[in-house]
User: Fold these one by one.
Assistant:
Number 1:
Amino acid sequence: MTNRIPFNVIKKKAAKLLSNCDIDLASVDVTNRDEIAIDLKKIADSHSIRIEYHDFSDNISGVFFKKNNKLFLGVNSNHHEVRQRFTIAHEIGHHVLHTDDILHHDDEKMHFRADRIQSSEETEANFFAAEILMPAALIEKCVENDIVYVNELASCFNVSPQAMKYRLTNLGYL
Ligand SMILES: [Zn+2]
């Protein structure tokens, strides 16, 4: 069992990732709702992670692996887009937070995200995913601009209402 990464460290790493990928939260105009959802493709591209969609069995959301020095992120093609986005953000979280795993296991499937959350790594990757998909500063901006309902926020951020509700609770809005 590895030591857990403190949430404030994960928070900083997520913020740094967004700014490194030229995602400037301050410049997002939330009155244009199409601008709000975080562009995960941009993040993946900037890390040379290739996203692929596969017909996995339903209990597998995504896999992350390294092959011939290239990074691959496999997503379940049968899942709803909001779930796929959470999976992608979660796997990027593993990549950023748990890099050693990848370095130590070349040419193997690194990670299977099944439905059951078992380890602290899973909790950390989920927290990271929430930070990049639903940045607190962007939620605050939406709220200031009267985008306040859970379903409305979820659709703006292109996440599930459940994920948004959980996030809003964690941030103290609910
Ligand atoms: Zn995971």
Note: Residues 90, 94, 111, 113, 122, 125 surround zinc ion (CB under 6 Å).
Number 2:
Amino acid sequence: MKKARCINKEKSVNLFYNRKMRKWYFTVYFLSNGLVAAFYGWHDNFIYIIERRIMKTGQSYSSKLPIYYIILGGIHMSDLSNKVMLTIATTGAYPIKKHNPSVPLDPPEIAEDILACAEAGASICHIHVRDDEHKASMSFDKFKEVVDAVRPHSNIVINLTTSGGTGWPDDVRMKPFQVLHPEVASFDCGTMNWQRTGIFENHPKFLEKLGTEMQKHDVKPEIEVFDPGMIYNALDLQKRGFLKPGPLHFQIVMGVKGGIDATVDNLVWMHSLLPKDATWGAVGIGHGQMPIMLATLAMGGHLRVGMEDNVMMKKGVLAKNNVEFVKRAVDLIHLAGKEVATPDEAREILGVENKTKIALGK
Ligand SMILES: [Zn+2]
């Protein structure tokens, strides 16, 4: 942390650079009529700490303030590094009521479930929608219905999929994030055999277009990687300018047939390939659900839970609903001595603006 500037003793502006977060932040204090107010901020996300003290000792007290605020700033930063972003993936493209009667499939059901999960502690919601027959869909109207039903009631970070199923034209895959302006959208960084059923196609030209459009619309890509090659794809796309410079955010998805298996050894290896400044999370499907969640927590990653990836809490035990997954993850985060990131803290970690506020005109 580096102090860059101090104007004078009565009005002070201090600028700091946090190397780990790669962000500038500042403290400001004013002394006026015996009151002291201090403001802390990262980019547009201001955390206001207002302190009111009667200035009895005047000059001698004010000279200590910068040190006091440097210490507070330090504490605040370490708090953020101890925060775990918790994503709820309520629906995905595949599970239906036959697999778990609680999986939400219609827009009102999905929105209601997201709100309940937000209430239980989820920081981010990853949204998929289904058509009227509950098949995988990229219907813009259905995405809009969900997002419009969530935003007025919750500050949760919105993450829209760009690949709800296979075979959709490029523009259909991109329209939801282009028009609805979520903070995050998924960026599946390669093509693979999907389970035993089909090809999950993400053509190199599509990825170039997708990365360009995400930069244009100020949407943070959640780079979903199903095997190590996809990490190298992301690095290559960034090198060529198709992904924004700066820290990338990865979601390591493990245990899909066709991709890497969900084992802790594989997770350690995949993690070792990520850029040092990347933020990342991981999720294990099927038998890897718990080992990957526990290892991710231990390794400092972020978590994703929900019926997109697992319909069972453990072998043979169906989840009651998505909230049950969220509650268990919250408990594990606390057991690990960490805290769940609030939606605004998740925005700070990801370096994104609050798009819900902007959409609601706040
Ligand atoms: Zn998804």
Note: DSSP finds twelve helices and 20 strands in the chain.
